[in-house]
C-alpha cells in the first residue's frame, strides 16, 4: 500500500506507532497497546490487548500522546490507520504504519482490563438420603457469563460450596469448557464422563476445606490458578459436583456452588 512504512514490533520493549488517535486491527497473533507521551517501561501494565481479527480505535485527550505497541508471545501482523494484510515472521511482529484518513478499521473494542467474576449455581439435590461416594450432587451446573465476552479466556481462582446443613466430607467440582452432552451427570448417580467429552474437561477443584458456620457449612478451594477457555464463541463453562464421601442433605435446596474467575 502506498504511503506505508515497514515497522518491526518486538516483545521486549514498547515501540512508537505514531500519534493518537489511531485505528488498529490485528491480523494474526496478539499485541498490546498503550497511549503515553513517553515510552511505557512496564511491559506488564494493563492496556489494550488485541487478538487476531479484533479492531480497536484508540483515542487520547492529550494531543501530544502517542500509541505504543508491544508484541505478545509469538509474531503477529497488525494494521494502523488502514486495513490491509501484514504478516509476522521469526520472533518479531511486522507492522505497516499508515496515517489516518484512509479506509478506517470498522468497529471498536474497549480497554482490555482483567475482570474478576463470581458465578453461582444452586442445584436441586436429594434430601434425607445418603449419597454414595462417586455420586453426582445435583447434576449439570451451568456457569453462564463467567467471562465478559466471546472468545475471552480466563483463570479459575477459586471454587466453593455453601450448604444449609452441616457437612464435612470432601467433594470434587469437575469443570468443562462446553456442555458434556454425551456424559452421565445425573443427581445421585455415579459420574460417567463419555469418551466424546473427555477433551472438554478443564480441570477438577478438590474442595475439602470445610468450616462450620453454626448449622450451615462452607467449603472452599483457593489458589486454583486453572486456565480455561469457554467453547468457541461462548462465555459459559459447565461443571458437576461429585461426592467423595457419603453426605446427606437436609433439603432439596441445601447446596449452592460458586466459581471465581479472572478473565484475560
What form results from the Cα inertia axes?
A: elongated
As a percent range, the share of strand residues is 35-45%
Gyration radius (Cα, Å) is 24 Å
Distance between the termini: 34 Å
- When the domains are counted, the total is 2
CATH class of the largest domain: Mainly Beta
Average pLDDT level: 79
Please give a structural write-up.
There is one protein chain. The chain is an all-beta fold and 264 residues long. The protein folds into two domains: 5-97, Sandwich (Jelly Rolls); 116-263, Jelly Rolls, CATH 2.60.120. The chain contains no helices and 17 strands. The protein has strands spanning 5-9, 15-19, 22-36, 48-51, 55-58, 66-80, 93-97, 116-121, 136-143, 154-163, 171-176, 201-207, 209-212, 217-221, 226-228, 237-243, 255-263. The strands form three sheets. Strands 1, 2, 3, 4, 5, 6 and 7 form a seven-stranded mixed sheet that branches. Strands 8, 10, 13, 14, 15 and 17 form a six-stranded antiparallel sheet that branches. Strands 9-16-11-12 form a four-stranded antiparallel sheet, with no helix packed on it. The chain starts with a strand and ends with a strand. Mean pLDDT is 79; it is low at 1-6 and 82-112.
Amino acid at each position: 500500500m502506498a504511503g506505508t512504512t515497514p515497522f518491526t514490533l518486538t516483545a521486549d520493549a514498547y515501540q512508537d506507532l505514531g500519534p493518537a488517535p489511531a485505528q488498529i486491527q490485528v491480523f494474526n497473533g496478539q499485541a498490546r497497546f498503550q497511549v503515553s507521551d513517553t515510552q511505557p517501561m512496564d511491559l506488564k501494565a494493563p492496556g489494550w490487548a488485541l487478538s487476531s481479527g479484533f479492531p480497536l480505535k484508540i483515542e487520547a485527550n492529550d494531543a501530544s500522546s502517542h500509541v505504543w505497541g508491544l508484541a505478545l508471545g509469538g509474531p503477529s501482523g497488525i494494521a494502523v490507520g488502514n486495513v490491509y494484510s501484514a504478516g509476522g515472521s521469526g520472533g518479531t511482529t511486522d507492522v505497516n504504519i499508515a496515517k489516518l484518513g484512509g479506509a478506517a478499521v470498522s468497529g471498536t473494542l474497549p480497554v482490555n482490563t482483567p475482570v474478576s467474576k463470581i458465578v453461582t449455581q444452586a442445584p436441586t439435590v436429594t434430601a434425607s438420603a445418603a449419597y454414595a461416594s462417586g455420586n453426582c450432587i445435583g447434576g449439570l451446573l451451568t456457569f453462564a457469563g463467567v467471562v465478559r465476552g466471546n472468545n475471552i479466556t480466563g483463570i479459575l481462582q477459586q471454587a466453593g460450596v455453601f450448604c444449609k446443613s452441616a457437612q464435612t466430607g470432601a467433594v470434587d467440582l469437575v469443570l468443562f469448557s462446553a456442555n458434556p452432552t454425551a456424559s452421565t451427570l445425573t443427581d445421585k448417580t455415579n459420574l460417567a464422563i463419555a469418551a466424546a467429552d473427555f477433551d472438554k474437561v478443564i480441570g477438577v477443584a478438590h474442595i475439602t476445606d470445610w468450616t462450620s458456620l453454626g448449622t450451615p457449612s462452607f467449603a472452599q478451594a483457593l489458589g486454583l490458578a486453572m486456565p480455561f477457555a469457554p467453547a468457541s464463541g461462548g462465555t459459559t463453562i459447565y461443571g458437576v459436583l461429585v461426592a467423595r464421601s457419603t453426605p446427606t442433605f437436609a433439603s432439596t435446596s441445601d447446596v449452592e456452588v460458586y466459581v471465581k474467575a479472572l478473565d484475560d
